[in-house]
C-alpha cells in the first residue's frame, strides 16, 4: 500500500496517561546560565517563574523518542546523529516512530496524520513541596564535582570545583501525556493502538536508563508510579502489566495491547 493510500479517515479520541514521576537519584535538567555570578551555581536546573523545579515535557518526550528509535532500529544509517524522520528518505507507511513522535519531513511525504503523543510539563507535586519546605529542606540540592588528576588521584590543580544544581532524590512530579488515536487507511485505529502500547512500554525503557544530564554518573534515575491510561471506554491501571517484557518490533506485548484496547472499547482482532 502506498503512502498516499494511507491517509487519516477518522479521529477516534485520545487516551490520557497519568503517573507520579518519582526522582530516584539527583535529577539535572539544565536551564542554561547566561550570567556569570561570583559564588553562583555553574549549572542550574530549569524552574518555573515562582522558583519551583519542573520537568519539561520536551525532555521526557525527547528521551522516550531516543530510546524507542534505538529499540526499533530507527537510527539514520549515515551516522549524522539526526532524529529519525529528519528527511523524507526515512518515511515509510506505518512507521511507529513517526506516528508516535512526529516528523520533520515534508507534508506530502507523510499523510498518516499528526503527532500522536503530547507530553505535558511535569510540575512539582504540591504535597511533596510543602513537606520538603516545612521540614526545613530545599527544593533542590547542590552537588560539587571536580576533575581528578589521573596520576596523583586527587583534584586536578588549576581546575576549580564546579557546582551542579539537582532535584533531590524522593522529589515527586505530576506526569500527564495525551495520545491521539486515528483510523488510518480504514484500520479502525488498530495501528495507533499498537503504537500506544509501544509507548507505554517505552516508559519501562526510560526507567532502565536516565532522564536529564549526567546519567552515566548516576544522575537521573526516575520511576513512573501508578501509571494509568484513561480512554473513552475505561481507565486501566498499568503498573502490574507493563514491566518485564522484551521490546518486540513486530507487535507490543499482548497484555499491554489488551489494556489499551479495553480503554478504547476496541474489539479483539479476529484470529
UniProtKB/TrEMBL annotation:
GO biological process, one term: defense response to virus
Coiled coil: none
Alphabetized InterPro entries for the sequence: CRISPR-assoc_RAMP_Csm3, CRISPR_Csm3_endoribonuclease, RAMP_III_fam
Pfam families per UniProt: RAMPs (PF03787)
Gene Ontology MF terms in the entry: endonuclease activity; hydrolase activity; RNA binding
UniProt keywords, alphabetically: Antiviral defense, Endonuclease, Hydrolase, Nuclease, RNA-binding
CRISPR type III-associated protein domain: residues covered: 20-223
Domain of life: Bacteria
Family: Belongs to the CRISPR-associated Csm3 family.
PANTHER family: CRISPR SYSTEM CMS ENDORIBONUCLEASE CSM3 (PTHR35579), DUF324 DOMAIN-CONTAINING PROTEIN (PTHR35579:SF6)
Name the record gives this protein: CRISPR system Cms endoribonuclease Csm3
Protein's organism: Oceanicella actignis
Amino acid at each position: 500500500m502506498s503512502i498516499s493510500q494511507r491517509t487519516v479517515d477518522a479521529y477516534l479520541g485520545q487516551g490520557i496517561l497519568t503517573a507520579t514521576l518519582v526522582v530516584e537519584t539527583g535529577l539535572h535538567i539544565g536551564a542554561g546560565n547566561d550570567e556569570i555570578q561570583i559564588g553562583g551555581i555553574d549549572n542550574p536546573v530549569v524552574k518555573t517563574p515562582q522558583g519551583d523545579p519542573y520537568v519539561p515535557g520536551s525532555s521526557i518526550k525527547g528521551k522516550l523518542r531516543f530510546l524507542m528509535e534505538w529499540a526499533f532500529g530507527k537510527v539514520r544509517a549515515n551516522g549524522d546523529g539526526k532524529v529519525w524522520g529528519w528527511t523524507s528518505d526515512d518515511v515509510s507507511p506505518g512507521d511507529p516512530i513517526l506516528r508516535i513522535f512526529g516528523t520533520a519531513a515534508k507534508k506530502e511525504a507523510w499523510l498518516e496524520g499528526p503527532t500522536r503523543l503530547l507530553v505535558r510539563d511535569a510540575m512539582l507535586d504540591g504535597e511533596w513541596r510543602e513537606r520538603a519546605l516545612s521540614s526545613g529542606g530545599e527544593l533542590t540540592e547542590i552537588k560539587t564535582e571536580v576533575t581528578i588528576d589521573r596520576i596523583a588521584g586527587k583534584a586536578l590543580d588549576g581546575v576549580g570545583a564546579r557546582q551542579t544544581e539537582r532535584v533531590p532524590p524522593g522529589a515527586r512530579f505530576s506526569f500527564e501525556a495525551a495520545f491521539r488515536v486515528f483510523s488510518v487507511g480504514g484500520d479502525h485505529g488498530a495501528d495507533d493502538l499498537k503504537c500506544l502500547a509501544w509507548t507505554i512500554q517505552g516508559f519501562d525503557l526510560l526507567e532502565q536508563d536516565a532522564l536529564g544530564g549526567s546519567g552515566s554518573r548516576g544522575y537521573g534515575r526516575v520511576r513512573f508510579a501508578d501509571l494509568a491510561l484513561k480512554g473513552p471506554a475505561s481507565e486501566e491501571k498499568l503498573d502490574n502489566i507493563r514491566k518485564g517484557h522484551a521490546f518486540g518490533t513486530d507487535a507490543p506485548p499482548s497484555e499491554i495491547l489488551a489494556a489499551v484496547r479495553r480503554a478504547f472499547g476496541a474489539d479483539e482482532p479476529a484470529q
